[in-house]
Write a structure and sequence with these properties.
Rossmann fold
């Protein structure tokens, strides 16, 4: 997956991407954004699913894994501003954004920032396990709960391993990140603006009891370039378990032509 020296911008030097020294010659980049509390490792195996034409690039958000020493960002607008700035040098070829749950809103806001600046727009926006931006939250916010109560909520609503939830020392380290991520979604307000000129594929798990088809269908109003809603096997955390159906869907929607620099 190593490209020739000087073939284009490299991912090294940025704490936002996990690949420190190699660049891909792939025709398309796919930037992957995790759910609340999730890290880039949930996309660790995606490259194997795409082959050489697509470079699956997980995004390392502040406050987790190697960036645990950095405070997580609790405002969606601020986080999208930061991510958009990091992506600018990497828009030399077609790219797409994939986000799941909180990551879907972050991908959406980031795409708007890039388009507003007159930069290359994403080939497609993939939003998984996420209600449309205009859909109100129908549950009380939890990001401000006391630690014990918040851990109980995380046990019920997230993909956090039980052994992590039971480890008081580890939870002390990661709970601020969960709070910040939850605050990003629970305080998010969609700005009043025109739809994106970017096709949107919205994905919902058939066993996801947190979302209805109508909640997801609202993404239709966020694009002027085409919309589809797709149901796949799985629950809210589609990136866990067998991901082949999901990655196959994404691969079919990505461009097959050259970089077009």
């Amino acid at each position: 997956m190593t490209g020739a020296a000087g073939a284009g911008p490299r991912l090294s030097g940025s704490p936002w991407f996990p690949y420190a020294a190699e660049e891909s010659d792939a025709k398309t980049r796919l930037f992957c954004l995790p759910y609340a509390g999730g890290g880039w490792a949930v996309f660790r195996d995606w490259q194997e699913q795409f082959g050489p034409e697509v470079h699956a690039v997980p995004v390392k958000l502040p406050g987790r894994a190697e960036r645990l020493h950095e405070p997580a960002v609790a405002r969606m607008d601020h986080l999208a501003d930061l991510l958009a700035a990091e992506l600018v040098p990497l828009l030399d070829r077609p790219y797409a954004l994939f986000g799941i749950s909180m990551g879907a809103l972050l991908a959406f806001e980031t795409a708007h920032r890039l388009v507003t600046r007159g930069l290359r727009a994403p080939h497609r926006l993939f939003v998984a396990s996420c209600r449309a931006p205009r859909e109100p939250f129908d549950t009380p916010p939890v990001h401000g709960l006391p630690d014990t109560a918040l851990i109980t909520v995380l046990d019920r609503l997230t993909a956090t391993p039980p052994q992590l939830l039971a480890n008081a020392e580890l939870m002390r380290l990661v709970l601020p990140t969960f709070r910040a991520d939850l605050a990003c979604t629970e305080t998010y307000v969609r700005p009043d603006r025109a739809p994106l000129p970017v096709p949107v594929t919205a994905v919902r798990g058939r066993e996801d009891d947190t979302l209805t088809e109508a909640m997801v269908d609202g993404w239709r109003a966020e694009t002027s370039a085409g919309f589809e809603q797709v149901e796949l096997a799985g629950d809210h955390f589609l990136v866990h378990g067998d991901q082949r159906e999901l990655t196959a869907l994404v691969r079919r929607r990505l461009p097959r032509s050259g970089p077009g620099r």
